[in-house]
Design brief:
The protein is α/β, with parallel strands linked by helices. Helices cover about 20% and strands about 25% of the residues.
């Protein structure tokens, strides 16, 4: 196998790999209008982003659809991964990174909080049982990089972490990269994090469905956050099958859009 991956140059772009909720859209066994839609915007894999930075491609979360997403977008290499939280729809594609260690010539750096690392070490325990490297290639080679609420750098790019509430019992991270911020899987943004979300060009924000939910913003709640923060552009993600792309898009206020798989946004 060649160790020089064939990969699309995405420098200066943020690409939505997935914009769907935890079960994806279409949902298994569902015959609703959105799940049976022929509009490709209604085909949503599990949430993930990739940022094309000058020093390499930064992946946010490893969704269970990761292989399909990277192949679809012709992205052949990932230099680092940044995690929002430890739920299955955000980490369980991690094994699809196994080829990256050959392309990088070493382990893939994973930037995450302690509870995310704990879940990864438990769920992918086989990746940490081979210190001699005898089974190199059969298991992902990983390098854990602990992060918290202090700003840090990934691939030379400054990152501002943002504490978000994902229901009453789960805390997650959002991230700000210059004038772009990503806040998925949340139904409450603490005051200190709201302060760090001012003066944005692009806000990417959780929006599950029409009705309120215990762990996600509803459409009205997401619109209220967007109105308060007033970014130039708001892109809604983590969308369920209740939200038909064309019908909802036609009713959104100026500056607010539903994101979709494959959407590319310039990085500021």
């Amino acid at each position: 196998m060649s160790r020089l991956p064939t990969t699309r140059d995405i420098r200066g772009q943020l690409i939505f790999l997935g914009t769907g909720t935890s079960v994806g859209v279409p949902a298994i066994g569902c015959g609703c209008e959105v799940c049976t839609s022929t509009d490709p915007h209604n085909n949503r894999t599990r949430c993930s982003l990739v940022l094309g930075l000058e020093a390499g491609n930064l992946l946010i979360d490893t969704s269970p659809d990761l292989r399909t997403q990277l192949l679809r977008e012709k992205i052949g290499i990932v230099q680092a991964v940044l995690y929002t939280h430890e739920h299955a729809d955000h980490i369980f594609g991690l094994d699809d990174l196994r080829l990256m260690q050959f392309y990088l010539g070493g382990p893939v750096p994973l930037y995450c909080e302690q509870q995310v690392e704990d879940r990864i070490r438990k769920s992918f325990d086989y990746a940490f049982r081979d210190p001699s490297g005898l089974h190199r290639g059969a298991v992902p080679q990983l390098q854990m990089e602990r992060i918290g609420l202090e700003p840090f750098k990934v691939l030379g790019t400054p990152v501002i972490p943002l504490r978000l509430e994902h229901g009453p019992h789960c805390q997650v991270l959002g991230f700000r990269f210059g004038d772009v911020a990503y806040c998925t899987d949340t139904n409450s943004i603490p005051v200190e994090s709201m302060k760090k979300l001012r003066d944005l060009e692009v806000l990417i924000l959780d929006c599950l469905r029409f009705n309120p939910h215990t762990t996600h913003f509803s459409l009205d709640e997401a619109l209220a956050v967007a109105e308060e923060l007033a970014p130039r552009r708001t892109l809604l993600t983590h969308l369920s099958h209740e939200l038909d792309h064309a019908k909802v898009s036609a009713k959104l206020p100026a500056g607010v859009e539903l994101a979709y798989d494959g959407l590319s946004v310039p990085l500021q």
